[in-house]
Amino acid sequence: MFGLKQAGLARMVLTGVVAASMTLSVAIAQQPPVAGGGGQQAPARLSPEAAAVKKANETKKGEILATVNGDKITRGEIVQFLSKYQLPPNFDAEQLYKQVVDVLTNTKLVMQSVKASKVNVSPAEIDAEIEKLKTALKEQKTELANVLLESGRSMEELRAELEQFLLWKKYVTTVGTDAALNKFIADNKEVFNGDQVRASHILVKLEADATPAVKEAAKKKLVDIKQQVATGKLTFAEAANKFSEDEGNAEKVGGDLGLFFRKGQFIEPFAAAAFGLKKGEMSEVVESPFGLHLIQTTDRKLGKPVNPTDPAVRNAALDAFAQERQEQLVMAAKKTAKIDIKPLPTDLFPPAPPAAPGQPAAKAAAKPAAK
Questions:
Q1: Does a structural domain hold residue 317?
Q2: Reported confidence tier of residue 209, pLDDT bands at 50, 70, 90
Q3: Same domain, 14 and 39
Q4: For residue 117, what is the domain's CATH number?
Q5: Letter string b/e over residues 47-81, b meaning 16 or more CB atoms within 10 A of that residue's CB
Q6: Total domains, the chain
Q7: Are 15 and 265 within 8 A, CB to CB?
Q8: Same domain, 155 and 226
Q9: Average pLDDT in the 285-299 region?
């Protein structure tokens, strides 16, 4: 996720709301040991600045950096999440911090919603999952204790991650009945037939805690822009270049997302709006976790019909159904959630590495961007 070319926060996260936190924890056996946090492998000798960051992340592991309806997101959780990724050398610390906290916040909201639905996981079920993990590790000639030590995890943290995984798996099994999947496949033929669209959008950003008045002002702005396009004062591309707040449009590409995509590849309701338009049509104002959008579908490609009883189709349907349900849970929960995020600590990330010869120097990643 973080190794992708920077193409704007909205564009980047449109391909998935709740990310790696829902993956099976056996992945810890597949990750190289990382020290010092920030997703960067420890060098043979740490600079004094990097050593200071490593120490801070170890000693302040329990520091609370955000709360989600009272549930804590700690420095340790952020460092552990980042340890799964190799960060680019010139990342923006403020943006990266926001992205990670957003993912962890969404995961908390999903888990809170799942638990509220009365889905439970017993300690015995977690024990059984740990035994599976131990067996998998033995086949790789290693032990769970060694992997936990190398990854900086405790058994309690592993059990918490496995509980999340099992809760979500059980929840999806409960709601993803045959009848629900049949309806989902019928309602989303474009996904399984392989239909694709290409779209452009104009984004007005909204913070998660935006007031109704702020939302209404943003909506009015987009309605006015749509009127300008509809009356021919501006083309959609001209309007996107003038008004869109998507960083991915920095090169003035007219709001074009730059690719054909299938319905399940982008979050709802963005994808639903794009697929609901004929070529050249423009949407009403659409709300997503990133703000408000005007969307124009610029091209379409038809796929081939598939058999809804095919096991491969049903497995794909269950995955897409689960992703859509995650997004629905997050969107619904954020309407009333109490989310408090503290500013980026200046000692969370290691300093940017020196630039290679002939390359521009990297930003000092450990320092928050100027407001």
A1: no
A2: confident
A3: yes
A4: 1.10.4030.10
A5: eeebebbbebbeebbebebbbbeeeebbbbbbbbb
A6: 2
A7: yes
A8: no
A9: 93
CA 298 vs CA 11, 63, 225, 365: distances in Å: 17, 47, 18, 38
Residues 42 and 152 in one domain: yes
What is the sign, positive or negative, of the torsion defined by CA atoms of 102, 215, 295, 233?
Answer: negative
Name beta bridge partners: 80.
none
Q: Is residue 122 part of a domain?
A: yes
With respect to residue 226, please indicate whether it lies within any of the assigned structural domains.
yes
Domain region containing 218: 195-301
Mean pLDDT throughout 112-132?
94
Q: Does the predicted model carry a pTM greater than 0.70?
A: no
Same domain, 173 and 200: no
Provide the total of helices (H) and of strands (E) in the chain, helices listed first.
Answer: 13, 7
The set of residues, in sequence order, having a beta carbon less than 8 Å from that of 96 and lying 6+ positions away, is: 2, 87, 349, 365
Q: Which two tokens stand for residue 43?
A: 């060098």
The two structure tokens encoding residue 3: 């190794």
* 126 in the same domain as 53: yes
Closest CA to 23 of 121, 164, 152: 164
Whether 201 shows a pLDDT value over 70: the answer reads yes
Q: Do 89 and 21 fall into the same domain?
A: yes
Tokens found for residue 317 = 């349907």
- Identify the CA nearest to 221 among candidates 250, 235, 242, 237: 242
Q: Of residues 209 and 110, which shows the higher confidence score?
A: 110
What pLDDT does 177 receive? 93
Please write the tens of the pLDDT for every residue from 50-89: 888 888 888 898 999 999 999 999 999 999 888 877 777 7
Query: What average pLDDT does the segment 115-124 reach?
Result: 94
| 29 contacts 140 by C-beta, under 8 angstroms | yes
In a domain, 213, yes or no: yes
Look at residue 199 and tell me whether its pLDDT is greater than 90.
yes
Residues 200 and 253 in one domain: yes
172 and 203 share one domain: no
